[in-house]
Amino acid sequence: MLKIKKNDKVKVIAGKDKDKVGKVLAVNAKQNTVIVEGCGMIKKHSKPSMQNQAGGIIEKEGPIHISNVMLMDGDKAVRVGFEIRDGKKVRVAKQTGNVID
Length: 101
Description:
Blueprint: E1 9-12, E2 21-28, E3 33-36, E4 41-46, E5 56-61, E6 63-65, E7 69-73, E8 76-78, E9 80-85, E10 88-93, E11 99-100
């Protein structure tokens, strides 16, 4: 089970987009990467097609390694642990003990 899920609010802690905060759009568990809204922008060249008549250069979010982001709990970036509460495995902020969901 990964510590970061889709729609989580995360802070980038390393790389060219350090200190940016965004929402996780996708998680790739096999490659341990996440796609964060507005971070890790890459340029992709595309040929003209039915969807994109003009073609050209498209800018979109690229993958960021999961170790380079931290989950946000309120307005602070926190480390995440797991605990069993009421028979369910839940994510917990290490510093405060708050359940993250």
